[in-house]
């Protein structure tokens, strides 16, 4: 079919819209099956010329026929339909998924919060960003995601930055919880649809500069990947900078020779490897971004400054952009505070108006914000920072039960079980109907060796969860339930948790342990595989899969599962034992002994490996 055919252009835009997250898989399949243009469903204003969304992505769709486009649409839909959480499902029992969007380096779930009072005082919508499923097994890509999370939560609320509330862990997957920008569109979309000119560029440019000036002042932060796709424009026209995945904070410097950023927006000195990420490089990218906004696209020429002339924009704006785009970093503006001052002066001169003071995001109360920060730092294994934030929260509000609870969790991590017990007790007194304090008191008393008291607290937590229809909140204590209660009773509670939260990977994994103890290896294998389907990087689930396969005499598969566990985490004694057992059962005893020796070299005092060494005569 000819690329000029309207239906071909429609397919092209379906694929583009799907990749940009403008529609979900269900809407894409519906659009492909119907004769209506997807653009009519996407835009309520002036119609957009077919093909522009594809152009935005740089898709070579003009060279693709209908069959190829449909194949790409099907593949994209299959990917989105296979992600861990689907619309209507819940993440951690706290968020109901409304829509799934796919970015270049992560999934974004648009969610309705079921208990978001610590995040927002307005509506209950939030955006949860997590690594792509196949990135979870890549340590470098996971580290980049964590870097973005750390950098994002380091910044306080500002009108021109997408507000990050905190980092939560669900199914051992990190989720960056961010404000939802209702009706938000990227600056890239605005540019390619012809919605920008030099006037909107001044307004948006001031917002971008203000946001980056705030980031520089508060955290000495450089963005590292500024471009139109990383700027969101709200319904009200406010520009908000997002995606701090390549940013640096606190005066950090790049490893020698590192090139990071997006082609076409990187400063010349970065391309020549004379410099890494820096304020000067951000200023250059800012200049490119604003130039694209003025002229309606990226001019693919070596010297961008030739486009900064009075035929395209007023002279004062052209002068600012020329300086930003200088090939000499020393000739650029010194930083974003200087740019803010210069752009503010253009408002009365060119727009006959004063710069507007834009509304701040709907941020939580200060003590609650510190609790969120404490939870974030604890999730990111930065215990000292977590403790400092928890203590600040309590100094502001001594009756904030969540502050006492997070302090108790920090003390558990520090193995100060008596202090943790006191903190959880205080949280329970302040909020006796909440499940969390009771569940945590069960864990603290178990760690103190007070098993009977732990059983009492666990039973109380279960009764609270049943009464409040919040069994999903027991996901984190599912192993403790298995340890404390008889198998049949524990199985009943575990199944109730999973009925309330089918995506609870931790509970599925622990159910695998319980099924093995109950001599039901087939169900153990199913449970472990369900946990892996929710998080392919869940190393302990791979160990449980291997153990179940050993019990089912599927030794070759067990060896593969145990090897996968060790690829994810070399410090899992159970993985070494499972692999050695599988190898021994396949008459490869020398290899089995080598596996145990390898484990002992890393974990010389581990009792499980010591017993295995005796069994295998190592």
Could you explain how this protein is built, in words?
- The chain is built from 27 helices and nine strands.
- The strands form two sheets. A six-stranded antiparallel sheet has the order 1-2-3-4-6-5. A three-stranded antiparallel sheet has the order 7-8-9.
- The termini are far apart.
- A hairpin with a 3-residue loop joins strand 1 and strand 2 (95-102).
- The protein is an alpha+beta fold and 618 residues long.
- Among the domains are: 11-82, no CATH class; 193-250 and 259-351, Orthogonal Bundle (Transferase(Phosphotransferase), domain 1); 433-502; 504-617, Tetratricopeptide repeat domain (Serine Threonine Protein Phosphatase 5, Tetratricopeptide repeat, Alpha Horseshoe), CATH 1.25.40.
- The protein has helices at 6-20, 25-33, 38-42, 52-57, 66-81, 139-153, 187-192, 198-219, 268-271, 279-295, 315-324, 336-351, 366-379, 383-396, 401-413, 417-430, 435-447, 451-467, 478-484, 487-500, 505-517, 521-534, 539-551, 555-568, 573-585, 589-602, 607-615, and strands at residues 90-91, 95-102, 106-113, 125-131, 164-170, 173-179, 185-186, 231-233, 239-241.
Structural class category: alpha+beta
Instruction: Characterize the biggest β-sheet.
Output: 6 strands, antiparallel
Distance between the termini: 68 Å
Taking pLDDT < 50 over at least 5 consecutive residues as the criterion, the unreliable ranges are 1-7, 41-62, 249-259
CATH topology type of the domain at 193-250 and 259-351: Transferase(Phosphotransferase), domain 1
Strands of the largest sheet, in order across it?
A: 1-2-3-4-6-5
Q: Report the top-level CATH class of the domain at 193-250 and 259-351.
A: Mainly Alpha
- Shape descriptor reads globular
Instruction: Determine the fraction of residues in helical runs and give it as a percent range.
Output: 40-55%
The radius of gyration over CA amounts to 27 Å
